[in-house]
Structures are given as structure tokens and as C-alpha cells.
Amino acid sequence: MRYVSTRGGMTDASFADVLLEGLAPDGGLVVPESYPSIEGTLGSLVGADYPEVAFSILRLFIDGMSDTEIRTIVNDTYRPGVFTGDGVVPVEEIGDRWLMGLSTGPTLAFKDVAMQLLGRLFDFELNRQDRRITVLGATSGDTGSAAEQAMIGRSRVSVVMLSPHGTMSPFQAAQMYSIDEPNIVNLAVEGVFDDCQDIVKAINADAEFKTMHNIGAVNSINWGRVLAQVVYYVWAWLRVGSAAGSEIDVTVPTGNFGNVFAGWVARQMGVPIRRLVVACNENNVLDEFFKTGRYVIRATEDVVHTSSPSMDIAKASNFERFIFDLFDRDADLTRSAFSELAPDTPLTIERDVLAATGFVSGTSTETDRMATIGGVYADHGRLIDTHTADGWHVASEYIDRDVPMVCLETALPAKFSAAIERATGMVPPRPPGFAGIEDRPQHVTVIPAAADVVRRHIEAINAAR
Ligand SMILES: *Cc1c(COP(=O)(O)O)cnc(C)c1O
Q: With a 6 A CB cut-off, is 410 part of the ligand 1 pocket?
């Protein structure tokens, strides 16, 4: 498989070329030059375990690695020592739908599914190229800890992670800031997530600095992450759809449009997914888009802080990939649409074009989240986290008895215990190893939202190593 940029300035790149990068050199996003069909092989995967499914999907997108190399990495990633869930990604039937558990990795959120793979792929590639990199990332909560956990002990990788100061849950903050490793630096930025993301973009646009420090990315725009996520949409159909002999609908709590975009890739590959339900919290730019065809990004000061903070986002960084597909992969159109995009110059897509994509959407508010968490617990004795609850709430509008609905569980409730306690009066149980994590010493520096300050921290960590 070869890779191209959504803006036309990169063609014919290899998987190894794009693995360690975020944006393409022209400011666009990396996409495969086409989506391989899996319709012919889907049947043979019924009954396969998760690593086997992952291997079968990943090999379609990875050139330059042998099947044995891919298999070794996949088997080392998707195993019980890394993911404690039954069968790596458990799928349970709860009432009128299914819940797919993506949160049983080391940081209790779905980002581990991709990041654990990415850490191992990075090691492989950096060893082969005899290179080192600095991973510069921005996180609204879960990416940071997942990335840091995946990079601990990897001697060829430094991590500099930006997070919005004071908006993560205490548990999320402790998960990141309690990490004390020579190759990991936490910077808490006085601003919102989009400010962090803008700094990452600014530094990546500085070609000289980027080359000097071998800046790489593990943000949700990293293609390797999207790819790893495609696997569990195939898994969802194999577990739920194949037995029912039917298509499935999948509901995805959405922020940066990374997770649900992987669902779109799976659908384009021929996985029988009828609807992809985009679930937003109060920051519902994407719900507006799927309902009206107008994508009106918001100013960062209009981001609402919610109890599902990993979805508190004003512009969805993966969205350009989807629009590129809707524009029939016309890079010129995509470039002009996204270089002009601003709160007062929306992008518009015709409603009938949107209707054919299978995407539908909805919004869940604080009241909905609380009622959903309380209701699911009362009805089924199952605690779900705030993000999963946004998905659950929106999915309820789209339940159809003929097509099974799969909701994605994107984090465990222990990560957001204050909100869970508000909703149910109960403190969610913590998995072993997480007791008292908030009391551990923290390693973080609070900085203003300025790219130059971040540059100095990158210089310092690389000088020290
Ligand atoms: C990151 C995250 C999301 C949003 O995922 P995107 O890929 O950004 O759409 C939803 N829920 C949780 C718990 C997350 O960590």
C-alpha cells in the first residue's frame, strides 16, 4: 500500500515514511491511496481471535514488513498481559444493544488499542533505520497517558506531551503526571486542547526545527492509529453481525473524528456496517454537520468544558480525511476547503451526499450523561463512563430491531469517578494497580500557550539524553 496526502503534495509514500509522522509535508493528512476490499476474506475470519483479525487487516496496509514481522508485533500487542479484557476486546450484550470493551489496556481507555501497537511499530522502524525521534503530542486527556505508557522504556523515543492545564479529571492527570521516566516530559498548557494542538501544528510547520529534533507524532491524526482502530470495527461485525447474518450499526463517542473515521475506513473496505452513529457532547460541531451539511468550526473560547472531556473539541482534526473521500479524493478541492476553513467560512456538503455515507449523529448533554449512567446502572447493573454514556444516549435514538447496534466503550468509569458518583452515588471500582494514583508525586510543568516555550523544552530533553 502506498500513501498520499489529502492536499496532493505527497504521493507514493511508504508505510514506514508515514508511520512516524503526523501531518503530511504539505499540511494535509496521510491517507492510503485506495481502500483495499476485504469482502473476499471476511468470511474466513469468522471465529478468528483478535490478533489474527488484526494481522489480516494490518498486512493489507503495511508494505516493507514481512508477515512474520507483522504477526510478531501483533501477537505481542494484543495479548492478555497488555489487555485484560476477555479476548482482548470483549463484546457483551446489554439489553437492546452490544457494548464493545475497548478500555482494558494499561490506561483504561480505547486509545491503548492503537497506541500499544504504535509503540511496538515505532521500535521496529527506528531500530531498522537506526534513528531516534521526539514524539510531540497534544492530549485532551486519554491520548497522553496512552502514548506515554506505550513509549516507556523505548530508548529511541522522547515524548513531549502537551495537555490543557486543569481540565482533565484528577485520575487522568495523575495517570500522566505520575510517570517519572527520563524520556517523557509533561507540559500543562494554560489554554484548551485546541491551543495545545495549534502549538503542535506550529512546531511541525517549522521544517528546520522538525528535522533537527526528528519530531514525530502520535496524535489522532497519525495514520497508524487510525489503522489500528479499523481492526475493531471488523471485529465488531465478526462478533455481532456475522452471527446475526446482518449488517451492524456502530455508535462512537466522538471528539477528533479519529475513532469513527476508522469505522468509515472499515465500511469503505466492505465491512457490513450500515450506520455509523456520531455521538457528540455539548461540543457538537459534528452533529450540526451531519444534520445540516454545514461544518462550522468554533473558536477555542467557545469550547464547553464537560464531564466527557476527551470530546471537548472545537475542530475535529481527522475530518479532512473524510471530506477528501466525499470530494472523490480531489486534493485541490480539499486543500482549498481546509485552508480557508474558519468559524465564519463553513464548509458545506450536500445533504444527499451525506445521506449516502451511512453517517448519522446526535448530541448528549450533561443531563443526558447523568441520566444514562444512572439508568444503565439501574437497569443492567453495569457502570459506564461519561464518554461511553454520550454514545449510549445517542445510540438510543437509532436502535433498530433488525440491525444490531454496537456501542463502543471508550473508557472505564474509574477514570471519571466524580461524574460517576454524581450520577449513581457510587464510586466506581478501580482495577488493581490504580489505587491512590492521585497521591503519587507528579512530574509536570505549567507553561503559557506559546510554541517557543515548547521548543525550549524539546531542546532541553534532547540535550539531556
Ligand atoms: C479520545 C476519546 C474520545 C474521542 O475519540 P476521537 O478519536 O477523538 O473521536 C472519546 N472517548 C474517550 C474516552 C477518549 O479518550
A: yes
